[in-house]
Design goal:
Length: 135
Amino acid sequence: MASATELTFKDVAKHSTKSDLYVVIDDKVYNLSAFIDEHPGGEEVMMDLAGTDATDAFEDVGHSDEAREIRDKLFVADLKRMPGDPKPTDHHSAPTPVETPRGSNTALYAVIIIGGIVASGVYQYLQGQQEKNVL
Ligand code: HEM
């Protein structure tokens, strides 16, 4: 049995009605019942997530600091993840940089530079030939 300050996903799932509405955000459990009628985003979005992990939805909206302060006041308990529960989504770490294929870029620049040198060499050679022909 989970202690008073720790709830499992199974416990949270039991609170999925408008007057008893828990969600999980960042591994913390919040009771949204008192706020649902005032939510600027409407009650439907909250009802859809009742009793589940709302972290992605909450973060995707880009809630303000004020929204986060309201959320913190609705804190009920920490989430206790059990084996088999989905892994937490981490919204705090910097996004993974998109890997650029450096190797192929360098090769491309090399081809352009070498191509340019060869072309200018050929041009100068031809100019020389032309001058010879004129003389
Ligand atoms: C602890 C839970 C939540 C709190 C305290 C909260 C609070 C707020 C607040 C204060 C706003 C006004 C804009 C802002 O200050 O960012 C807002 C907007 C909004 N919220 Fe939430 N929210 C919560 C959860 C959610 C969830 C789970 C969703 C699901 C998608 C959601 C969807 C939205 C949307 C769509 C808006 C934009 C409304 C608009 O600008 O028309 N919110 N929320």
